[in-house]
Specification:
The chain is of the alpha/beta class. It has 2 domains: 4-256, no CATH class; 381-447, no CATH class. Helices cover 22% and strands 21% of the residues. The protein has 12 helices and 20 strands. Strand 16 (262-268) and strand 17 form a beta hairpin. The longest helix has 15 residues, at 433-447. The radius of gyration is 22 Å and the shape is globular. It starts with a strand and ends with a helix.
């Protein structure tokens, strides 16, 4: 076991609707979708057309910038629809699923003796490569780069986050194999970062990695915060990150020779009648989970957590990297004099609302921002919730000014959008911090 890092700055947002610890099987949805918008900077090039028959593991589209990176179907069936948006941009590739999933076979026999290039080639063809995220910039990993390290956060501290000891139960052997594969992709260290006070039994079989224990409030479970506290990213460094459920996908692939993307996801939130865990697949329609399972109609369905997830419809699809669906009130109702005094208890960093700190353990939060963007003033709030050695508000201002040198000096290589989501939540000025940071990262990537 490595060192123990205690995160002191941050904020746990205690919301109603934590999932029950039981795992349910539900009827398989009729359709699944892969969404190019889940990947930063991706310009897709279709490999199929509507009506084509595909197996699980067949390529749906490739990255136009690197045609070796495949994005594959999670199920077998028929390509039902290519959904396009403005300027014919591809928004979704939908597949109408067969009753029984058939898989494309890959030759992964003797994987332990394969070279790095052979392992990469298999992962690319099976559509597993996009699970690896590269820092800086938070993009799909460059296939031609060897990172200085690979980091995996073994727990999630986000609001209503899935308990990985539940979602990954039974995946112990796949996790072991997955981490063995990760070690083949770098000459540096593979880091597994676990919670100091919670069980990490699902990783019991994992060997040959550097383990660091973390404790403290959110964002202690964010891999960017962990990297900053273990080995910060400097200019010129390349670090890869990947989520534990995706490590299990990789391990299962090399053990079986098929891309089986079945997973357990958490359905949580105050507006869910039966918050619990459900067995489904990557890209699944969430309708089968939500039908007859909502307390009201006016809700916000989020693929992911409430801080960083994506708004989807009740007929929408699970995001590529998500193992959680959150459902909260829409928050579009008018509040009489809501700017003057709090109309209901809600999570806050401010000490001016004592009931929210002492008399409530969980909250029913909605999407109402309780104000609009206003003068950007220095309050010191960002520093209270971002446990990284950077100056977050000055960084955001540098991005707004498009000052590349200052952005670099203030640590933009260290962060991606999710790292500063709490800053957006506590911002008195109602600045869309994640959107601003995303624009800055894109600007830096274009100039680098």
């Amino acid at each position: 076991m490595g060192k123990n890092v205690k995160i002191k700055r941050g904020m746990d947002i205690a919301l109603e609707g934590r999932p029950d610890n039981t795992v349910h099987n539900v009827s398989a949805p009729a359709t699944y979708a892969i969404k190019p918008g889940d990947f930063k900077g991706l310009i897709p090039k279709l490999s199929v057309k509507q009506g084509d028959k595909v197996k699980a593991g067949d390529c749906l589209f490739v990255d136009k910038g690197n045609s070796a990176i495949f994005f594959t179907s999670p199920v077998s069936g028929e390509v039902a629809e290519i959904v396009r948006g403005d300027r014919r941009a591809i928004l979704e590739v939908k597949v109408k699923a067969d009753a029984d999933v058939s898989y494309k076979s890959f030759d992964t026999s003797g994987y332990a003796g394969k070279s790095r290039d052979e392992v990469k080639a298999l992962m690319l063809e099976a559509g597993l490569w996009p699970f690896i995220v590269q820092r800086p910039f938070g993009v799909i990993a460059d296939t031609d780069v060897s990172p200085k390290a690979i980091h995996v956060s073994g727990f999630d501290s986000a609001p209503l986050a899935a308990d990985l000891n539940i979602t990954l139960k039974g995946e112990e052997e796949n996790l072991k194999i997955g981490f063995d594969i990760l070690k083949m992709l770098t000459d540096g260290a593979v880091h597994l970062n676990v919670h100091a006070n919670k069980s990490s039994d699902v990783y019991a079989k994992v060997t040959g990695v550097q383990t660091t224990e973390f404790s403290g409030p959110h964002p202690s479970g964010l891999v960017g915060v962990q990297i900053n506290n273990i080995d910060p990213i400097n200019k010129g460094d390349v670090v890869w990150t990947i989520k534990p459920q995706h490590v299990a996908f990789i391990g299962k692939f090399f053990a079986t020779g098929i891309a089986n993307l079945e997973q357990v996801v958490a359905l949580a939130g105050s507006e869910v009648s039966k918050p619990a865990y459900y067995r489904t697949r990557l890209g699944a329609s969430v309708n089968t989970l939500l039908v007859d399972n909502l307390k009201q109609d006016n809700v916000r369905v989020i693929s992911g957590n409430v801080l960083t997830g994506s708004h989807i419809s009740e007929e929408g699809y699970l995001g590529f990297g998500d193992n959680q669906i959150s459902v909260i009130p829409e928050g579009d109702q008018y509040e009489m004099l809501g700017w003057l005094f709090p109309s209901y208890p809600r999570p806050t960093l401010s000490s001016s609302l004592p009931f929210s700190k002492f008399f409530k353990k969980t909250f029913k939060a909605n999407t109402n921002p309780h104000g609009e963007e206003r003068a950007y003033v220095v309050t010191g709030e960002y520093e209270k919730v971002l446990p990284m050695d950077i100056m977050p508000q000055q960084l955001v201002k540098a991005v707004m000014a498009k000052d590349l040198e200052l952005m670099e000096n203030l640590g933009i290589y260290e962060v991606i959008e999710e790292d500063m989501a709490l800053c957006e939540f506590v911002c008195t000025s109602k600045i869309a911090v994640q959107r601003v940071l995303s624009e800055g990262l894109q600007l830096m990537a274009d100039e680098s």
